Amino acid sequence: MLATPYVKFDYEKVYEPAEDSFLLLDSLEKDQSYLAKRFHDQLAVVCELGPGSGIVTTFMMQNKMPSQNAIYFALDINPWAIQATEDTAKRNDCDRIYLEPIQSNLTSSLRHSEVDVLLFNPPYVPAETIPDIPETKDDIDTWLDLALVGGENGMKITQLVLDNLNSTLTANGVAYILFCARNKPEEIVKSMTSLWNIELVEHRKAGWEVLSVYRFSRKTI
Amino acid sequence: MKFLTTNFLKCSVQSCDTSNDNFPLAYDGSKCQLEQDESIEFNPEFLVNVLDRVEWPAVLQVASDLGNTSLPPNKPVFEDNNALTEDDMAILRDLHTLLIQTSIVEGEMKCKNCGHTYYIKNSIPNLLLPPHLV
């Protein structure tokens, strides 16, 4: 079993790693050799959306996933998450690896068709509304809310990412996305199977939530 | 922000996606403060793979924005990646210095299509848009 990165930050400002984060780590660990085979030694661009504490990106860097020829982008709207991700990478001796934290709203700032491995533990909690992006760094309650709430069915943000998946990923690219049962992932999978291979990598009951991680890749390369 | 990252960033404005001018962003050389960050070691194999992937005209463009016009007009190619010559290694070392070690710590860049300006502060690029442009 691979070690979990050591994380320490102010959890009033960024999402504290929890069951969902660990399920994503377990899914990536399970797929370690799958990813190594898929990308061999070619340069792989790994991009995590909403890294929060940075635990997932750091885990990828620590374990040289998919290979040692990888560069890592960590995109978050929350300036505290950018800071936490840098901090977690350093704390786990990953400062000799190519990591670029970028303040960005999802993938809007990335050139199309450049991401080989997309990682996303989204704000998936159903809520009536999603707050606007705060104007100041000090509005920590709102920053934290943005890490959690996902609007109707908790799918508003995830759906944006799924809608753009085709223009985000390289031809050989894969995406790992986490869902909770209230996101109705089975229905989403069904609606996307004509173009995408979608595999359930891990699922787990966590308290009153049932969480799952799906892997998306193109049907034809 | 490392130089190589400029090869992946475009304007965040959605309507600019239909334009060819949203990438690369135009970096303001007079306002960009550069530093050499040597924490990542030179690794020729990694660099050959990076080079495989980069959009060379965009490298030339950004290098020239930042005042470096000494790069070859065509992307360097290596005949045999398993037997790199001394000359190859010298080229790769220079590219390591440029792409991986050169970091923009403070600066600004603009979309050539819509003119929106983005900033880099404390080495972090901020590609968020103000609400009226989202």
Automatic annotation (TrEMBL), chain A:
One of its GO terms (molecular function) is nucleic acid binding. Residues 34-125 form the Methyltransferase small domain. One of its GO terms (cellular component) is eRF1 methyltransferase complex. GO terms for biological process: methylation. InterPro entries: DNA_methylase_N6_adenine_CS, Euk-Arch_PrmC-MTase, PrmC-related, SAM-dependent_MTases_sf, Small_mtfrase_dom. Gene3D superfamilies: Vaccinia Virus protein VP39. Keywords: Methyltransferase, S-adenosyl-L-methionine, Transferase. Pfam families: MTS. NCBIfam families: hemK_rel_arch (TIGR00537). Belongs to the eukaryotic/archaeal PrmC-related family. This is Similar to Saccharomyces cerevisiae YDR140W MTQ2 S-adenosylmethionine-dependent methyltransferase of the seven beta-strand family.
TrEMBL record, chain B:
Keywords: Cytoplasm, Methyltransferase, Nucleus, Transferase. Pfam families: Trm112p. It comes from the Eukaryota. It is found in: Cytoplasm; Nucleus. SUPFAM superfamilies: Trm112p-like. Its main location: cytoplasm. GO terms for biological process: rRNA (guanine-N7)-methylation; tRNA methylation. GO terms for molecular function: methyltransferase activity; protein heterodimerization activity. GO terms for cellular component: cytoplasm; nucleus. InterPro entries: Trm112, Trm112-like. Belongs to the TRM112 family. This is Multifunctional methyltransferase subunit trm112.
